[in-house]
Amino acid sequence: MRLPILFSLLFAACTGTKGDSGQPNDSSPTDSETGGGGFDTSHDGTCSTGSEWTQGNHGSSKMNPGQACIECHDRGEGPNYKIAGTIMGAIHDPDDCNGISGVTVRITDADGNLTELTTNSAGNFYSNDRISTPYTVQLEYNGITRDMAGAQTDGDCSTCHTQDGKSSAPGRAVVPY
Ligand code: HEC
Ligand code: HEC
Predict the structure, then answer these.
(1) Which of 148, 156, 175 to mutate to test the pocket of ligand 2 (most atoms within 8 A of CB)?
(2) Radius of gyration of the chain (CA)
(3) pLDDT tens for residues 133-153?
């Protein structure tokens, strides 16, 4: 139980909130590998949440967290989505790491229409609502928000938010803290 206590303290120190629920990290690497924000930003191949998807391409709302949902589904098998992705616990979590549940994902499209989604227990979210592009993103968790500064046209978040990040993304889309 040492790490959850540590992370609660860091959480409180960084944000002034209690940090009493949904802490994403219970099997993280050592303190010296953690980044300035308090959560693991290391790159050692483990999942910050300590749990992962192990069922391959078995169809499920919790499948393949961190992978590009739409890119694969558009090859013909999975359902059609306009927006889909995963909110993870740490910026360099590998593919298939379960992310953080209960994060609000707000997509505001080019016409000002708001689509509000909540991540499931894998950290995944998805919608087939029409989204006119470019759209913007805001995340909210425990009252803390985080915005993607730039607007985007591709609704498949994990094409950019890979483990290392592509197209200038810093890595994963992570829970606000
Ligand atoms: C590498 C390919 C691949 C990726 C990546 C992928 N899926 Fe799928 N998905 C599939 C296939 C194939 C099916 C249909 C499987 C079936 O019918 O059994 C499916 C089906 C689904 C279903 C329907 C499940 C059901 O009960 O009918 C959901 C929901 C789903 N995927 C969500 C996601 C989400 C969310 C992501 C991204 C985080 C994702 N998938 C990533 C291949 C993928
Ligand atoms: C075409 C690439 C691309 C796509 C697609 C994309 N992003 Fe991003 N995202 C970026 C880049 C680049 C940044 C860093 C600069 C910025 O904030 O705009 C970023 C930053 C973010 C941030 C802020 C990160 C931080 O730590 O401050 C969040 C949150 C985020 N994205 C969520 C999403 C979500 C959710 C989706 C899908 C609905 C998405 N992004 C789709 C490229 C992308």
Answers:
(1) 148
(2) 16
(3) 999 999 999 999 999 999 999
